[in-house]
Specification:
Family (chain A): Belongs to the binding-protein-dependent transport system permease family.
Low-confidence stretches of chain B: none
Strand order of the largest sheet of chain B: 6-7-8-3-9-10
Membrane topology (chain A): Multi-pass membrane protein
Mean pLDDT of chain B: 83
Structural class of chain B: alpha+beta
Radius of gyration of chain A: 24 Å
Oligomer: heterodimer
Number of helices of chain A: 12
Largest sheet of chain B: 6 strands, mixed
Largest sheet of chain A: 2 strands, antiparallel
Shape of chain B: globular
Protein name (chain A): Carbohydrate ABC transporter membrane protein 1 (CUT1 family)
CATH topology of the domain at 59-254 in chain A: MetI-like fold
Helix content of chain A: over 70%
CATH class of the domain at 59-254 in chain A: Mainly Alpha
Pfam families (chain A): BPD_transp_1
Strand content of chain B: 25-35%
Subcellular location (chain A): Cell membrane
CATH architecture of the largest domain in chain B: 3-Layer(aba) Sandwich
Strand order of the largest sheet of chain A: 1-2
Helix content of chain B: 25-40%
Mean pLDDT of chain A: 85
CATH superfamily of the largest domain in chain B: P-loop containing nucleotide triphosphate hydrolases
Distance between the termini of chain A: 32 Å
Number of helices of chain B: 9
Radius of gyration of chain B: 24 Å
Order of helices and strands of chain A: HEEHHHHHHHHHHH
Chain lengths: ~290, ~350
Amino acid sequence: MEKTWNNKAWFMVLPVLLLVAFSAVIPLMTVVNYSVQDTFGNNQFFWAGTDWFVDILHSDRFWAALGRNLLFSVIILAIEIPLGILIALNMPKKGIGVPVCLVLMALPLLIPWNVVGTIWQVFGRVDIGLLGFALSALGLDYNYVNDVFDAWVTLIVMDVWHWTSLVVLLCYAGLVSIPEAYYQAAKIDGASRWAVFRYIQLPKMKRVLLIAFLLRFMDSFMIYTEPFVVTGGGPGNSTTFLSIDLVKMAIGQFDLGPAAAMSIIYFLIILLLSWIFYTVMTSSDEQA
Amino acid sequence: MARITLEHIRHAYGERPRSEADYALKEVHHEWNDGGAYALLGPSGCGKTTLLNIISGLLQPSEGRILFDGRDVTELSTQGRNIAQVFQFPVIYDTMTVYDNLAFPLRNRRVPEAEVDRRVREILDMIGLADRAKKKARGLTADQKQKISLGRGLVRSDVNAILFDEPLTVIDPHMKWVLRSQLKKLHRQFGFTMVYVTHDQTEALTFADKVVVMHDGQIVQIGTPAELFERPSHTFVGYFIGSPGMNVLPAKIDGITVTLGTDAIALDYRPNIAAGATTELGIRPEFVRLGREGMAVRVIKVEDVGRQKIVRAELGGKPIAIVVPENGEIPAEPRVSFDPAAINIYANSWRVGREA
């Protein structure tokens, strides 16, 4: 087909360009601007070069928060992905059970983050919370306010409760797209239940699993609201993740320069890790 | 290899069928000979796939029994019946190589690896994919994928029967012919019992020794291609098989005289018809002679289909198709006559035999 060149067409992309500029590019550049300057108030700024970046990369506080973040992401991925697959495999494929299950699965996803946090904050309280009170009544020494391990368990269980549904729904979508003939052929070929999963279901779920994996990784790596509401980053700094630390630094201490440098490093880490995951997980496709 | 006996099989997809209409498969009572090549022919939704899945064990019949060589297998799973089945759309295991795809049914059955290798190589040569054995199956074309599906059916040497569910739907026409003759050759070579489901009469007639014509959940005729053509036992078989199908004209029958509208013709036998039955006369377009003698017809249009012409006409207000040789003339005042030996008489859609 003959291509027509018309430079007026550029005006078509102008609205999107403006939108992206105001919502992403300009704020990002502002952050870049802050990250290379220092201020002592009165809107007076001094060139600081890469000092803030060097500071951040040499601070134990940053590395500790990053470590907690990575640990948290690894744990919730290790639970949510297999659990999501398992639930999706056992969901009904037809009948009245399908809409019932889908709605039940979608419910946690519809709850706003801060509400989820509040629910679990109350739920886990030893004095009035159902979970906390019940565990105490059973003689378990559970207290997420004082105990580091209990705080982590609470956050992880909360995240699993909130987000496993997303993995389930994505996997379920992948599973229902498999034609019945595949299962029939597998029966004819004498395939075991494991072989059906390994050679039919898993390959068909691969793409949605990649999406689920990336979404869950990025979301959990950026987690802020729920731990902020439930534990406020404590006890001590034990649940202070990068985002919480960042907000403390920027809003609490009003250290705009270091906070800006930190958010750029944070952004680059997410970008880099997502790119690595994506490349690794799609590269096996190209070997075919 | 096995002789397959279907004893009073009926199947309904819903629970608790109430009436005859609830059955997707009405009573089937039939025996398939060991080593026979059968085609199940019928339009979409006539129950042929249902019957096939009942034989393979993917479906449990609502009623009736299935026997392989006299042994009741009704309760057995697909695996227990040792059946191979090829589906309409190619089923391949994406992540495996072509070789592993073919080896899969054997490895699942714990066949020794040396034997697996021997069988797989044999099948690879047979389906012409030997040069792609180590490639991932994902990148293949639709007909190569279907060849792998076929190959997985053929790779097991001990199967009781191989069932094909419209396996050539996705294949290009010229490849269809090639694959069909390969199947035919395999059948002659190894003598598998083969059941082949299709809605394509050409496919059925060229593949099978015996064609089973199904209509509305029941078997209406089982016969050789010639029998189906010359003596269709049901008007449905008459117009489903043949191109164009058989002419079926409403007729009044009195002794050996048949009255079509205002014209009367004589039969060469006396059909025995129950009182009150709806009677029809069936005649293949190939056996209708167009000339200056016989019953007056009005020609509506002439279709030239290459080596012959199909004349669409009206006889006493009813449509009739006539096959005329390529250079046959169409008279100005056309009349038709029927070859008496090719006339079939139907009472309530079922053929009334000569012997009665």
